Amino acid sequence: MDNLTYYLYHIPGKKIGVTRDLNSRVTQQQGYSPDEYEVLDQSTDIDYISSRELELQKSYGYRVDHKPYKQLFKMKINATEQTSTFPVPLNKLKGRLLDELGRKWETIHGTFELTKDTVSWIVDNAKTSMYSDNRSYIYNKAFYEQFLNEAKKEAKLFYNQLKERVNNTNGKKEFHTENRFDLIRTWATERGLYEGGDTKTQFAKLVEETGELAQAILKKDDAEFADAIGDMVVVLTNLAHLGGTTIEQCIDSAYNEIKNRKGKMSNGTFVKND
Length: 274
Description:
Elements: E1 6-11, E2 15-19, H1 22-29, E3 38-43, H2 46-60, H3 69-72, E4 78-79, E5 83-86, H4 90-98, E6 104-107, E7 110-113, H5 116-125, E8 127-128, E9 136-139, H6 140-147, H7 150-169, H8 177-190, H9 193-196, H10 199-219, H11 222-242, H12 247-258, E10 263-266, E11 269-272
Antiparallel strand pairs: 1-2, 1-3, 4-5, 5-9, 6-7, 8-9, 10-11
């Protein structure tokens, strides 16, 4: 992570303070435009900037903070199985989080960290606590899916590349369905999925993707619907490979089983004849 810069700002006649984001803390939150305040000092050393703030507050005749800035730096983030809660209201959340860039905390989904990207996401997705207007929270799994689920991010990248290749063929025969399955297997091989994976973990992944498909259907989300089906096809392709067969063989076997089947529709389901 890049070194973080602390700015020691002065609002004449009002106060001297420290922040990492002048626009958010001074302009947006306190309402002072850049020509209404001045930057007295800046440093990447939090110990220096903390002592310098107290020194200048005293010399300018302002109220001196009871605690140095560095002791205010760490707010208590309460992480439960479902959520991470911040002791800050939504209207002050961005500035406070930016003041704590680099902060890490543990959740059941792994280690979360405050960066400029994650702060932006948190501010967009945080909700006010039902217990206190002065607290806000995020859902841990949503954060994990956005920033830590590397396998899913790689899979989405793969799907986008695959879609681009399909679109570029303009329906030409040289891009058959089996080529797509070959691409999936190549992708999985390059990432060590077949060497280090097994059928149990892939089945668990399939169940997870099935849940996402169910959510997409209930929400009538067409984009997530297509994405979930694509995820399931990839998982099934890898599951078949790890089980000693191929997705093509499984499809052929299933089709040969049903191609001559007779029956009728009942309550939205095809019911075969006895």
